[in-house]
Design brief:
It is built from 14 helices and four strands. Helix 2 runs antiparallel to helix 3, helix 2 packs parallel to helix 4 and helix 7 packs antiparallel against helix 10. The chain has a four-stranded mixed β-sheet with strand order 1-2-4-3. The two termini are 37 Å apart. It has three domains: 109 residues; 131 residues, no CATH class; 116 residues. It is mainly alpha-helical.
Length: 391
Amino acid sequence: MVYNRYGYALLGLVMLESFQPVGGARSRGENWLGGFSSGAAAALLLFLKASFFFVSLLLIGASILFWSRARHRLLGLTIGFLLVTLAFLAYLTFDVRAIISDLQMVASARSQSISAYGLFLLAARNMAYLVGALLLAFAASPAVAAARPRWLELRLLGLGAFAFIVDILARSTNAQRDAMPMIAVFAIIVMNTITAHHRNLPEAEARVTRPYYGAMLALAGLLLLPQWTSDLTGLAYGAWKKARPPNLAKVVRFTEPRLAPLLLYDGAESERSNGSVFTTYVNDGVSLLRRVSAPGETIINMDMTNPFPYALNRKPPLGGMIAPGYKYTLSDTHHPSDDAYFGKADIVMVPKHPALDDVFYVGYLRIYEPALHERFRLAGETEWWRLYRRK
């Protein structure tokens, strides 16, 4: 889910620009440029993942309280946000009603899978991060008492707790087991602040306090380095496996030329959507479509993704839904209408072994099954698929 990685990078940028105190008070131009950058990042988050956008609003809103020249920052925020938003809206032909409708649908569906109790459990499982952030803030407070802006004197503890809350809110919308990126950003802010303050001390005082500042940097590193090391190790491992793939002869290959360069390896996390299972799922569906359908017919797949238009080099249908998930992106009360979902598709593929897990798939299929059988007829099937053609 690469969009989550992009989302965290943008949130980290917003947090750094909102609370980074290095260099003392900022000029009017620096406030404006920082606001412009944060506004642009927030707009990107709106079209990347709406839940991350609302988290960015919390960061921006809190930061406004901490700036002495908030009006300049607000002006930059507004201009940056509007320019990027207008660019996206132009790409989407300014269909604001459709965008709002989709966001409302997803918000309603997602609210059915998030509870206050679930947020409490998530926070409880990660309490060690909160304790670490508060300990760092408490220990570093004397070092930054004379730094600027003045909010650091009293609010460093609050910023650590706030970073923890932001992480919990962002993670609640992810299929994510661990890591707290905003806590790591908080550690960077503290490290930068105490380092800058130490550089400004007189030589004699700096020499005496060097062990204390070193200890603060080490404590901040405990919040930052484990996450950074895990990411770096994962990247190195992925690059190594890409360069030297194991058991290449045993990898099941895609049969279609457009997909042939893509190799999917078996993974331990899901038996439905990884490696040889998913490759066989696609190959079997392509084989059925080549036997039963005509080259000009458009295809919808009632599952997690629809690989068939690309694999067969056909025009995508007007209809369907990207990444459906019951009580995640659609629900019984909020979902595309039958007309909008099936659109003008000629063929509907219904998997017998869906890539989506049952918790996401069963309710989704139930919503559209009546209209499927009313508008389409079974025209072919294999061990993996049922193919329906419009009546």
